[in-house]
Amino acid sequence: QVLGIFIGLAGIGVMVSRMDVHVISGLQFNSGDFVTLFAVLGFSIYAINIRKIPEDLGAAVSLLVIIFSGCLSLLPFYIAETFLYRSVPLNMTSVMAILTLALTISLFGMLFWNEGNRILGPSRAGMFINLIPVFTAIMAITFLGERLYYYHLGGAVLISSGIYLVLRK
Asked: Which of 64, 123, 152, 167 has its CA 20 to 30 A from that of 88?
């Protein structure tokens, strides 16, 4: 299992670096990267503590409580952004984008994530986070016309192998 974790991480490294040392050495970070790192830390805490939700509460009810808590905790930031920068424009494009993200990521994505955590346990389910670069590449190739490169395939094979090694009995 430990070998699987390292193989999965190596697959992510292959995809992120494009198998080019200059890509890693030329990385530059901005404030958004640190916000993302903070968000990943928060999601990690959430994933670890999700097992503490009582099973008799039900998946839909617990997700409703989680979403409400998340909205409540983000409200001060939304208010600050509205007054300090600008508000979110209220037009058909923004409404459709918000609805799409709310349904696909917040509702269905988290419902499936919570159920996967319940079935597999957080330590085993956590390995599937490594598939994000694979799905990102698939969507970029499908929807944006990006090309498929050898590092996509190599990274996907390493990530899949790592998941297999962690999850096998």
From this structure: 64
